[in-house]
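BUG: 3D viewer hangs when loading the predicted structure for this chain

Environment: internal workstation, default settings.
Expected: structure renders.
Actual: progress bar stalls at 90%.

Input used:
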Amino acid sequence: MLDTLRDNPEVVWGFALALTIVLLLTPGVGRFARILGVVDEPGEGRRLHVRPTPRLGGIALLLGIFVPALAFLPLDGTYRGILLGAAVATTVGAIDDFRGLPWWGKLAGQLAAGGIAIGFGVNVDRFTFPGFGSQELPDWFSGPATVVWIVAIMNMVNFLDGMDGLAAGICAIAGTTFAVIGLSLGAPDAALLAAIVAGACFGFLHHNFYPARIFMGDSGALLLGFLLATLAVEGLVKTAALATLVLPLLVLAIPILDTSFVVAKRMKYRQPLYEADRTHLHHRFLSIGFTQTRAVLYMYLWCVILAAAALSTRFLPPRPRGDWDISNAIISVTIGLAALIASVYIAYLLEIVKLANPRVRRREEAARRDREERRTA
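Structure tokens produced before the viewer hung:
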């Protein structure tokens, strides 16, 4: 890996340049947002901050990503489409930050960004999954499936952006992981863009970690979601020969799981899918008494463990040449078990798994007694 990195120094330079630009520009973008009145006021509901905080951090992220991308990436074909789609995604998010958009307007913008990526050749035409081999997708299905994937990840990152530093940190870890995997798969351009995304997120995290001085807003969340979704297709699915579907699902597991739980609950209670609420994983952490910092660090650790599982899938396959490698198998199984245990623990801690959870039983018993007391009062 070090030799590959030495052969592709622009990956390091892209990361460093993106980090520096976002680190330096974000305070100015915050002041500009205050002048324009694009400020998130404290309030009830799902808002967690206690002081007015400017949005539009996505503008700093966009500049921090575009400058090194234009400097180091080839601007023909696929990556031109990715950058153009990213600009559209950021514009849609910025309009929503400024004036607000109805859900259908935001969705139309997301579909437009995804359509641009498809038009420039970003599409899932096949995938590989352990036990099923390589599966080719028909042309009539691959385009719509890719658009659904891109729009879904954009919204998942947007949903995740509900706590100081959470979305930026998770995207930084995901971008770093994609860069490492992309380099190992012989996809230096995808690795470079992933490293640029990671550098921009780390630079923004300096200003966005609790207590946040600026929010990325929809402009930043849609930008990062779009880039991670397209990188998962261009850097992993198109190049990996083994478990291509597993890698992005592991790296992006937290926003995927968070959105899945929320959507399932809203469907269960017949609530609109596009309305904000406090049922996300990070809100569950707060409801059981965690501080914002502790909750975010738990989510970071969980994401790192899942990313390690993805890396072990890539670098430590149990059968690298068709024969079993015992040491690889032991390490991979150990990391896989750690990821499984961490996921089950989080599900238990946040009361997603309610079976035999004494805290849930105590809470439900207290609620039952409270209802009985109100009836008899």
